[in-house]
Specification:
The chain has 134 residues and is an alpha+beta fold. It folds into two domains: 81 residues, no CATH class; 42 residues, no CATH class. Helix content is 46%, strand content 16%. The strands form two sheets. It has a two-stranded parallel ribbon with strand order 1-2. It is globular and about 40 Å long.
């Protein structure tokens, strides 16, 4: 399973480097991949990803998107907590939006993108259009 996250364009991180704390000094995408690789070792049916694109640039975020898509093709359900709305809209079958700890909206990407409450809270008038661009 670790092969799935080995798409990261960096040299492999060896176990001695992990013990020495080198993982903390690597790029955000590499850290996310290391975390996911550890989770995949238990062959989960459900994977919770909390802000996997935090600190990532657009190229790295696209790689994360590809990895998430592969998980779903492999039959792993992914629960994604993420602020990158383009990533959320691109990979999600269903979206549940929370605002200030309360449920704001639920539905498909198109339904959520068009929801006036979501637009007001998160997307803004131009943001709804921005999330449709890949």
């Amino acid at each position: 399973m670790i092969v799935r996250v080995a798409v990261v364009p960096h040299p492999p991180l060896l176990v001695p480097e992990l013990a020495a704390g080198a993982a903390a000094e690597t790029a955000p995408l590499r850290n996310a991949c290391l975390t996911v690789a550890r989770a995949l070792a238990s062959e989960p049916k459900l994977l919770l990803l909390d802000e996997p694109a935090a600190g990532c640039n657009p190229v790295e975020t696209a790689e994360i998107e590809a990895i998430i898509r592969q998980f779903t093709l492999d039959g792993i359900t992914v629960v994604l907590v993420e602020h990158d709305m383009r990533l959320v809209m691109n990979v999600s079958d269903r979206i549940h939006v929370l605002a200030n700890g309360r449920s704001l909206a639920e539905g498909t990407a198109a339904e959520v993108r068009a929801n006036p409450s979501v637009i007001e809270a998160y997307l803004g008038p131009h943001g709804a259009q921005e999330t449709t661009r890949g």
